[in-house]
Each structure stands twice: as structure tokens, then as C-alpha cells.
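Now for today's protein.

===
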Amino acid sequence: MNYIKFTIKTEEAHKDILIALLSQYTFEAFEETDGGFFTYIPENELTEEVIKGMEELQNRFPYTKQKELIQPQNWNKVWEESFQPIIIGDFCAVRASFHQIMAGVAHEIVIDPKMAFGTGHHETTYMVVNSMKDINFTAHKVLDYGCGTGILAILAEKLGATHTDALDIDPAACENAKENTKLNNSQHIDIHQGVLDNIQDVDYDVILANINRNVILASLSTLYDKLKTGGTLVVSGILSKDRAMLDTAIKEAGFSIQNVYSRSGWVCEIVTK
């Protein structure tokens, strides 16, 4: 699959707002740079609606953009040029296999992301990783819903999970997640390609759902059924402006909100059944 890379140049004050608003379309990754950011979208998903939406945003938050075709065989080179390690305090570091070992952190994750989303750079993934330090995973069964690169499933195992089902609708993401589990010597992660209904298992102790607002809202009742009583659900991929809508849906589904993280226009919520 070919991708389109946009190089966006804008004022610093507009950067996070633009990333948040563009995330509502089918852009799959964002890499911040000095003076702007890169973003990627599958070539066949760059529709007239997306183009019109970008033009409308350009009128509200002035920016310049440069478009470039990225073919699949060039993706590793793109990541090697742009992917920088992420350090989340002394809790976790995420790096690529071509980076040096990161010292001084409790958990190190090696990710060669290719086309899959979820490296820790985006605010939504960062917040879920950060929230996981306060969740008990020891001897627990976990579902990573929308696994992308597999980063959250890998961390769950490092934190003591005895089994994790990692699910993504994108076949390329599933292949990449399998590669990354091998890089991290993960032994108890099963990768599944498909939708939530393809997972028949229930009684999960922890469910991690880092996707987007519409998918989360549509899935809350099913996630409730799959979670043990007293279990923990982490939801991320929600813009701060949509938090009231999310909170209402969470309570209607039977969950209780325990904690809320916010970062650069995004929220991540930890809830229990």
C-alpha cells in the first residue's frame, strides 16, 4: 500500500490543535518536527472529504503543506530518519532496534513500527503507557483492542500479564505486532486480525482500547461483557472536547470512572466494571 506523507509547517501554538483535528480523519501517524510535523495517510484514503477538511483547517489555523508519495519499500528508511526514542520518566522507554539500549528505566520496549500506528509518540499511546504503571497486570489476562505495533501488549507482559490477546483490523499492523513481540521475546501474546466480535474470550482482567472515539463508543457494551467484574478498562483516542460525550456513554454502559489523564488536547480514562 502506498502512503501520502504531508510535511506541515505551522506556528507552535497551532501544532497540537492541528494534530488533534487531523486525527479525526484517517491519518495513521504523526511525527513532530521543529516548526511543524509529518503525518501519513494511505493513498486510497486521501479523499475529497479529507482534502476539503485540510483546506478548512488551513483557513482557521494557517499552515503550509508539502505532499510526498511514500511507497511501502521505502517505509523502513523513513522511520530510521524520523523515529526518535521515547522516554516516559523512569518507567518505560520505547526505541527502535537501530537505537542504543536505554538505561535508567524499569521497562524498555523495542519497536520497529513500519506502517503500524502506536509508537508512543502520539499523545494517546503515551498516556496509555503512562497509565499502565498504576494498573495491576500480575497474573492477569489482558485484551489489547486496536493493538497497532503491539506496544501495549508487550508492556502488559513485561508488567506481569500471563496472557494477552492483541487485536487489530489492519493485517499489516498484525504482522508488525508479531515482529515486535519477537523483538521483545514476548511469550504470551496472541495476535488476532479482525474486529472485536472475532474475539470470543471473556473475563479479561484488563482491557486496553487505544483507538478512536467512534469505535470506542460503539464498543463499550461489548467491552463491558468481556471484562471481569472489578476489571479495568483503559480508553484513549478521545479529544478533550468529546470527554463529556465519552463520560456519559461510559456511565450508561455500567462503568465507573477512576482516573483521567489529559495531554495536548487528548484524554485517556481508566474505568472499572
Remarks:
- Helices lie at 12-22, 48-60, 75-82, 123-131, 151-158, 171-183, 213-226, 243-253.
- The CA atoms of residues 117 and 154 lie 15 Å apart.
- Residues 117-272 form a domain with the Rossmann fold fold (CATH 3.40.50.150).
- The chain has a mean pLDDT of 90.
